[in-house]
Structures are given as C-alpha cells and as structure tokens.
Amino acid sequence: MNGMSDTTGGYDVEFAESLSANLDDIKCAICLLILKEPLQANPCGHRFCKSCIERVPGFGLDNELVCPSDRQSVKVFADIGKEREILNLQVKCTSFDLSCNWTGELRTLEGHLKSCPHAIFPCKYQALGCKFQGNRQQLCTHLKEDIDDHFSLQMEKIMRQENQIREHEIEIAQHQETISQQNNVISSLLVEVKSLSVMFFPRCPYEFVIENFKARLTNSKQQNDFIYSETFYYLNGYRARLKVYLNGRNAVQGTHMSVYFQIMKGPLDDSLQWPMIFGLIKISLIINEKCKHKMAINCKQDQEHLKTRFVKPLREEGEAYGVKYFAHRDLPIDIHGDLIKLVVHVTKL
C-alpha cells in the first residue's frame, strides 16, 4: 500500500467500513486512487488530485485547459467540501495485513504511520537500486548487515556517472570543435564581406575634386580652416583621406596650400600589415587639366615618420602626414569650372 508516502497521485488506502457514498465520486479521474487535495473541473464536474492535474499542459487555477476525461475546455477550482468529506473517512493502517489493527480518520493516518511498528519502508538506497522493504527493525538490521551491497551500488552509480561524464566530455569537445570550425568560417566570411564592401568605395588612384574653389578659398582665408576629402581605399584595404588647408597652415598661411595624407580606421585593419609598408604616396595638383604641382612621400626616405604616422589607428583617424609647402598660391586667374583636383596614388614597395 502506498498510503501517505507518495508525493504525487491520490491515497492508496483500505477503508475500515463499507462506504455509503459512491466510491467513484471520491476517486481521481487520472490516477484512479482516492482524491488527494481534490480539484473539480467546471462545467463537466470531473475531479482530480492536485498533483495529477498539475501535470496537464496549460494547468493553472485561472487558466482554461482540456479535461483529460472528456476533452472539454474547463477551468478547475479547489473542492474544499469534498476534501473534508474524504479526510473524515475511517481507514485502516496501510500495514493492516501485517497485523496492525489501527483504524482512524484518513487525516490522522500520516501521524500514525510515523510510529507504527508494522509500517513498511523502502531502503534509503532504493534510488541506487536496492529493492529491500521492511519495518523499522528489519530496515535497521538491513542497513547494518548489507553495507557491502550498498557500497557496491554506490560504486556502480559512480562508475555510471564517470562514464556519462566522459561521454559528455567527448560530446563537448566535438561541439567545441564544431563551434571553432564555424567561427573560422564566420571569420572568413566576415573578411570576405568587408573586402566586398571596400569595393564600393573610392579607390586609388583617387581624385579629390574641390568645386566652388574661389568661394572655398575665400572662406579658408577668413576662417583659417581646412577641408577633408571623402575616404578612399588603397593597397588592398588600407583606408585614408586628404586634409587640405587651401590658404596654408601656420607659417605658410596666405602663401601656400598645405596638404596632408591621413590614415583612417578601416574594416580590414586586422588583416593588414602595420606599420603600413608602401613605396610612394604621390599627390598631384591638377588645375585646368594640367599638373601644377606634385609631391611624394617616400617610404624608404621617411622611415622615422613611418613608425609614428603610418601605424594602425586606435581611433577613427590616425596621424596626418604631409607638407605645409605643398604648392605656392600663385594660381591662374582663369580656373576652368571653378574647380581644382588633387590626385592621390599609392604604390607598393
């Protein structure tokens, strides 16, 4: 007999006297045992143990669920009256077949079982596989005499767990290898995507067209400011821009145009060589489709500057490198289209 010991399902008890009530009226429609903490379904009226109906998908006292008996849509509520009726019933001890003559209300059965000398209990190592059951005295003797058996059961469990751990470790290693391979594929694809995205941006040789030149030159004289070109790519992934002082910078203000080459942070920086290795950075000034001036930054001649100016940018923009005396401002009176061009070309070493 299960009596009061199970945490799920109803009461498995023998009644001390014949019941005047219909036995089906106090049985759970799921486990078919005597209702424990009964809940009733509305509107169909079926009753269930709380622990039984809790396992039905969608259970909740305020939720609708499908009745397991007739598949109706129902809500359930605690049937306190039926619970009182059941707990008032007279029952026998679950060890009545072992000469225990106790009878009493169902609500007192649990208290009796705690002191009943005939009550049957499973071995505490039941979860490990021990199938012994007996009264308190028998159980005490069993625990003392069968230590070796229990130890063997524990060792078997430990060995099973160790085997499971090894299997899990193998599975984890396989998953980690798969993840590593997938990460490599993802990294490769990201590089490809970044490389493809670079193709849609301006590339060397790059032309920086400065339109409305006269107005911008006047503004530069008044504000002593500079202008940036858009960013462009060169040498398979490096990113840069030009920084131009139309009216000159510092000591050459008003006499020369100052031009600087500035490395920018780019999507392919992690795959590029730093400091940047190049042959020449050539910048030409084109006015009226004629080259008026040019300058070149030579990698071999500018090794010291290379170490500081052409390193991987930590922020959005790196160091700017160029010359203040890029071009004297003795410009032609007639500038076709009111525009000038700066053409940049970067060569390999």
UniProtKB/TrEMBL annotation:
Single GO term (MF): zinc ion binding
Gene Ontology biological process: regulation of canonical NF-kappaB signal transduction
GO CC terms in record: cytoplasm
Organism whose genome encodes this protein: Clytia hemisphaerica
Domain of life from the UniProt record: Eukaryota
UniProt keyword terms in alphabetical order: Coiled coil, Cytoplasm, Metal-binding, Zinc, Zinc-finger
Listed name of the protein: RING-type domain-containing protein
Domain RING-type: 28-71
Entries under SMART domains matching the protein: RING
PROSITE patterns, alphabetized: ZF_RING_1, ZF_RING_2
Protein's UniProt keywords contain GTP-binding: no
Record localization: Cytoplasm
UniProt cross-references to SUPFAM superfamilies, sorted A to Z: RING/U-box, TRAF domain-like
Coiled-coil annotated residue ranges, if any: 158-185
Family matches, as InterPro entries: MATH/TRAF_dom, TRAF-like, Znf_RING, Znf_RING/FYVE/PHD, Znf_RING_CS
